[in-house]
Write a structure and sequence with these properties.
Helix content is about 40%, strand content about 15%. The protein has helices spanning about 15-25, 45-55, 70-80, 100-110, 135-140, 160-165, 180-190, 215-230, 240-245, 260-270, 285-300, and strands at about 5-10, 30-40, 60-65, 85-90, 95, 115-125, 130, 155-160, 195-205. The protein is globular and about 65 Å long. The protein starts with a strand and ends with a helix. The protein is built from eleven helices and nine strands. With about 300 residues, it is of the alpha/beta class. The chain folds into two domains: about 5-205, Spore Coat Polysaccharide Biosynthesis Protein SpsA, Chain A (Alpha-Beta Complex), CATH 3.90.550; about 215-300, no CATH class.
Length: about 300
């Protein structure tokens, strides 16, 4: 059996799929399989996948009978995986040659870590942007509160035994935030996380990708964040969580009535008094984010 299973959902990805696959086949670490799952593409993605499968026995090609979406297709890939570790890849990204080697070595040497990711640089923009996330478990978990810069899904590698023993899956009802929901659920199951400082991937930015801001993602994020809040602040009532949560929407701040902002601001000082939860998040980082939210909304009131 291979050491690593790379799960790669495909939907109308013909423009960049070959570059993505070439970067995976060029990995310095060679003991892997690539699970290609076409999710009802209408272009020639299937032909490209089959061509690569014919030339490399490590590639396994599958097709969904109907379009299921990225979350459900990723779940299928996880069930098909044979490796000790599961890596994710998007169809239009370029993996750095040392990506798998660095991640496998880290997981081999740190058996307490269930999920690891790393930094990435953007493609398709005039300026190259470096996207980094904190390295330590406590800071990663604190960043589940804002929902950003925690675990970077296109660079992720997961210990298969952990995801299977805890029956983890990507919830298709969470739209484009299924990865956020998955990693939070992993935390609830006791996962420890890490990020590598090295750039593992070149991430393509374009107009059609689902990770661009949209109303469905904006609606799904609060559902997951409320789960995090219930864990970090266990004495809060559901009503209190729902009152303060809109003020923590850093990426998509909502339009709120003045009385709703004031009610949320009254609760933020209480949140900052909480000790760390059983999950071991960084209190300093958590409170830094809460203070930033407090400052933003206090300023909005004038």
């Amino acid at each position: 059996m291979p050491k690593v299973s790379i799960v790669l959902p495909i939907y109308n990805g013909s423009e960049h799929l070959s570059l993505c696959l070439d970067s995976l086949l060029a990995q310095s670490f060679r003991d892997f399989e690539i699970i290609l799952i076409d999710d009802g593409s209408k272009d020639n993605s299937c032909d490209i996948s089959k061509k690569y499968q014919a030339h490399d026995s490590r590639i396994r090609h599958f097709e969904n009978s109907t379009n299921l979406g990225t979350a459900s297709t990723t779940n299928i890939g996880h069930r098909l995986a044979q490796g000790s570790y599961i890596a994710h890849s998007d169809q239009d990204d370029i993996s750095e040659p040392q990506r798998l080697a660095l991640q496998v070595a880290f997981l081999d040497n740190n058996p307490e870590i269930a999920i690891i990711s790393g930094s990435l640089k953007s493609l398709g923009t005039e300026e190259e942007h470096l996207i980094k996330a904190p390295l330590s478990d406590d800071q990663i978990k604190s960043n589940f509160l804002p929902g950003t810069h925690n675990i970077i899904n296109p660079t992720v590698m997961i210990r298969r035994s952990f995801t299977e023993s805890n029956q983890l899956y990507f919830d298709p009802n969470l739209q484009g935030t299924a990865d956020y929901g998955y990693f939070v659920q992993a935390m609830l199951c006791g996962a420890k996380f890490a990020n590598l400082p090295q750039v593992l991937l070149r991430y393509r930015v374009h107009s059609t990708q689902q990770t661009k801001g949209n109303s469905r993602m904006a609606a799904a994020f609060p559902v997951v964040r409320q789960r995090v809040m219930a864990e970090f602040f266990p004495e809060l009532s559901l009503r209190q969580i729902q009152t303060v949560e809109p003020l923590l929407r850093w990426t998509w701040p909502p339009a709120l009535a003045r009385q709703d902002v004031e009610a949320g601001l009254e609760l933020i000082p209480q949140l900052m008094t909480y000790e760390i939860s059983k999950h071991g998040e960084s209190r300093e980082q958590r409170n830094g984010f809460l203070q930033s939210c407090q400052k933003r909304w206090s300023g909005a009131l004038g």
